[in-house]
């Protein structure tokens, strides 16, 4: 999984366009992109989208936050369509994940879905409280699959007038990004980089995506179809990285002791795990 393309849950036109892209997953949005008076209507449209899916793409649903009293209604509408996962916004730690997991237990049973198969991805940095809770995933449900960070809602939570200058994030938002990455690694789940807000600056998008992958993010959220191919390419390992990884694995194959030597340098298990991760990333 490299790219998660957001699609408004009430726009069949945008959904049909998104289905034609190479996005690994679509996030059908019932939250920020839907006006309050359109929420109920969007649920029905999103349910129809699930029935008309592209089998080559995963489908996730971003529901409304747990404190809105809309989450259960969202889930009741979409779970019969068997989404691959639920994106939970404004998540503040393990308690919120576990609460959603309990809901999913019930909806899976009611819809004839195998227990535990619906993944959870949290948007984990949208409030100041959420950032403080981002390392609180030690006792979370095994449904948790990924952590995504975002800077737009966090700016409002902090009272910031902007989150970046000349394309560079200010320090509170860099902190949130880094904690998301570290929290995901600690929890053993996928770290997902935030969207690029400038739709037309594809060079900046490419640089941002490459930097995210180099830091350890495994995927990136996008908001426009023309961002998908740029992100997918950025999250593929380079030829040099693949060649290095293959040589590392070959070196360990001949040294069962747990250490190896290559180009005059000692290698140990972390190098092997890094090589395996790089080679695995060549597949979606």
From TrEMBL:
Molecular function in Gene Ontology: lyase activity
Lineage: superkingdom: Bacteria
One Pfam family per UniProt: HpcH_HpaI
Q: Which UniProt keywords apply?
A: Lyase, Magnesium, Metal-binding
Indicate whether Calcium appears among the record's keywords: no
Q: Where are the transmembrane segments?
A: none
Location of the HpcH/HpaI aldolase/citrate lyase domain: 2-225
Cofactor requirements of the protein = Mg(2+)
Keyword Lyase in the entry? The reply is: yes
Q: Report the InterPro entries cross-referenced here.
A: Aldolase/citrate-lyase_domain, Citrate_lyase_beta/mcl1/mcl2, Pyrv/PenolPyrv_kinase-like_dom, Pyrv_kinase-like_dom_sf
Q: Which family does it belong to?
A: Belongs to the HpcH/HpaI aldolase family.
Could you tell me what this protein is called? CoA ester lyase
* Taxonomic path: Bacteria, Pseudomonadati, Pseudomonadota, Alphaproteobacteria, Hyphomicrobiales
